[in-house]
Amino acid sequence: MNVEDLEWQADAYGGVNPRVVDSLLERGYLEVVVQAASEREDWFCARGAVRGLQAAGDFERAWEVMRPFAETGWLPAVSVGADILLQSGRTDEALELARPDGERRGQGEACRVYAEVLVQAGQADAAITALTPHLRDEWLLSFLVEITEGQGRDGRVLELVTSLAEEARQMHASGQRECLGRALDLQAEVLERTDRVDEAIAVLGADVAARRSSAEIMYASYARLLARHGRIEDLRQMATGDHEHAAFRPLVTALEEAGRPEEAEALLHDYITTTNCPGNYQSLLMELLIRQGRLDDAVEAVRPTFEDRWDGLLQAAVLVLAEHGRYTQALQLLEERSPEFLEEGAHWVPSNRWWLMGESGRCREAIAEIEAAPDLEPGERDATIASLLAQDGRLDEAIDLLRSCSGDHSTQLAELLVRRGRPLEALAVIPGVAAGREAENRRREKNRRRGAWSDTGDGSECAEASGGPTGDHRGCTDDPPF
Question: Which of 60, 77, 167, 344 is deepest in the core (most CB within 10 A)?
Fold first, then answer.
């Protein structure tokens, strides 16, 4: 076991996919997952095994599973291992495991893990001390504020954050390039949680007015701060001024929470009809109407966008209708599209259509359509048909099809084998870490030689990653999301 293999698994979802691990655990195969974590040195199996063992109160075995991973020094495993030790009352061992030493001593990420363990061990002051040398890293400064909430150390944290915020203001005043802007909104955050709301609004409001940071996060933080405390008129002023993008969503939320949804709706309609870029407001209007239980109105509100290939909200409408079990209505939206749209969305529209048909109990009809489609890539076609077969209760046919088809469908096949009660066989079809990395390298080299613009392979991985026709197709087609 080595850190490079672990990083590859975490980054590329290599080894046993978390979906397979979850399926095994849901069906009571905890011991199979424990064994796989050890024998395959598989990170996702180890995480799943630990989760199952902790739920059963067996912290000793959970630690035995995680120990070889944590002993590599890989920080995600160190963090999980320390958590197990803390839960089993072995605080000194947890702190020793997480304590940065050698090459890790000066690393901010290692100090972040150590500080988190210190807080969990009830040593908030030591955690602050561990993070203090790294607070010019805005991400770690944010983490300091996050982990100290409720720890009774707000005075010390405010002093540290305020010092950096003042430095940011001085840099801005002297024309230097701002690099500590996050401290400005974090100072307001700590002031707010110490019940100094007016001071928080005044301080951050002055920073916004003076444009002391170019980071959009400062404006968004100020808008959310105003929204949390019902400062609707201040929000309205932001939304109609220079910070419209940051303020509009919080303004809509504040109006809704104040019992004024009709006002929020009217405001959105006004902006949709007058702005040159109505898309953001149409999306907000759709969300507002859905929260109000007005699903049909929500769909109608965004209908004018449906033919827009790049900024349209057809995908969002289809998904929300499906979430509410209204598959026929979602299918109708697809069928109403113009010939030009259908030609441009030649991949996306049919794949969503077959998914919706499957969800509505028309699996066999969808399969017949797929089999008659002439232009589908074979691996994608077979993976989609297999999903529909499984949804139709024909698991053995789906398994046989995936075994015989081209492309790598090991995760999808493994899921079906688990559902069939064959957990060991399911794990056997998934390549081990070394084999998986080698296969990925071969695929990347193949794509490099043919000048491929991405590493998505032959398309089968994409269909599998989305869960086939029952998955969420956003971001997993050759077309942009609608």
Answer: 77
Distance, C-alpha 439 to centroid of its chain: 26
Q: Which residues 6+ apart lie within 8 Å of 105 measured at CB?
A: none
Helix then strand then coil, in percent of the chain rounded to 5, is 70, 0, 30
Could you give the dihedral angle defined by the CA atoms of residues 374, 376, 381 and 384, in that order, rounded to the nearest 10 degrees? Answer: -110
Residue 388 near residue 360 (C-beta atoms within 8 A): no
This prediction's pTM: 0.85
Distance between CA 10 and CA 283 in Å, rounded? Answer: 33
Q: What whole-number distance in Å separates Cα of residue 282 and Cα of residue 298?
A: 9
> Are 44 and 18 contacting, i.e. CB atoms less than 8 angstroms apart?
yes
Distances (CA, A) of 85 to 1, 76, 288: 21, 15, 45
Q: Reply yes or no on whether the pLDDT at 453 is more than 90.
A: no
Q: What are the backbone angles phi and psi of residue 103, rounded to the nearest 5°?
A: -65, -25
Q: What is the DSSP code (8-state) at residue 104?
A: G
Residue 200 and residue 225 in contact, taking contact as beta carbons nearer than 8 Å: yes
Least confident of 274-278, 310-314, 357-361, 453-457: 453-457
Cβ atoms of 60 and 74 closer than 8 Å: no
Residue 476 confidence (pLDDT) above 90: no
The larger pLDDT score, comparing residue 278 to residue 129, is at 129
Type of residue found at 367: I
Question: Is residue 468 pLDDT above 80, yes or no?
Answer: no
pLDDT grade, residue 104 (50/70/90)? low
Residue 340's identity, in one-letter code, is E
pLDDT score, position 316: 96
Residues sharing a CB contact under 8 Å with residue 6, sequence separation 6 or more, in sequence order: 43, 69, 72, 74, 76, 77
Sequence-ordered alpha helix ranges (H) in 260-377: 261-274, 279-291, 295-302, 314-323, 327-335, 339-344, 348-359, 363-372
What value, to the nearest 5°, has the Cα angle with vertex 465 and ends 7 and 350? 155
Q: Where are the alpha helices (DSSP H) in 229-313?
A: 232-239, 244-257, 261-274, 279-291, 295-302
